[in-house]
Amino acid sequence: MEITILHTGPFGVNTLIVPLGDNRVFVVDPASCAFCGDETVVSSCLAQHHWKPVAIVLSHGHFDHVAGLPFLAKTYPNIPVVIHQDDAEMIGADSGILQGNALAQMGFFDFVPSVSGLPEPTGFLQDGRTLADCIADADAAAALADWTVLHTPGHTKGSCCLYNTSEKILVSGDTLFYHSWGRTDLYGGSEQQMQQSLRRLARTVEKDTRVYPGHDRYGFLFSENC
Question: β-strands 52-57, 24-28: how paired?
Fold first, then answer.
C-alpha cells in the first residue's frame, strides 16, 4: 500500500491520502487553508490522480490538523467527516471558541478565523471498531474494515490511531512520533494518559509495522521506537 503524504498547514502536518482500491481513498488530517496559501493542495492532488475521497478522518481535533475541512467539504459536498466523540467539540459551528483558547495560549490568535465554523462531524471513531463501522461506503467497505481504531488519549482526549494489521501500517496522528510523542500541555492533554496510550501501542502493534505520524519523519518501523 502506497500512502501519499502532503505537508499542509501552518505546522507542516502530514496529511495522508490512503488508498482503498478502485480509485477510492480516505484523507487523514487535512490542514491546507487560505491562511497558509495551500488551500487547494489536497483537492488538486485528488483531482490529478482521479481519486474519489470517501471520508475525512481526523486523528484528533487540534487546529493544525483540521483547517482544511471547510475547503474540502465545499469541494466534496456531503463527504463524511469522522473524529472521536471526545474531540468533537473542536470542530463544528462553535469550533472557533475552543480553538481560539488554544491559539491564544500559543500566541497564534490570527489563525482563529481559519478554524471557526468548521463542518460538523458526521460520524465518530470508536475504540476497537473499524472505519467501515463509521463510514458508509459499500464499494470501499471491505478495505475500510481493515483499519481498526485505537483510542489513544494523551495529546487530546479524543486522539486516535488507525491500525491496519494486514498491511502493517499505523497512522499515529500526534500520539507517536519518531523517537518521541505528542505534547500534553494543551487543552485535553494528559501526560499520564499519554504514557498509558504508548504502553498500549507497545503491547498491540507489531514491531515491523510502519508508522505514519502527524508531523515530521514517517514510514519508520515501530521497532525503531522501542
Answer: parallel
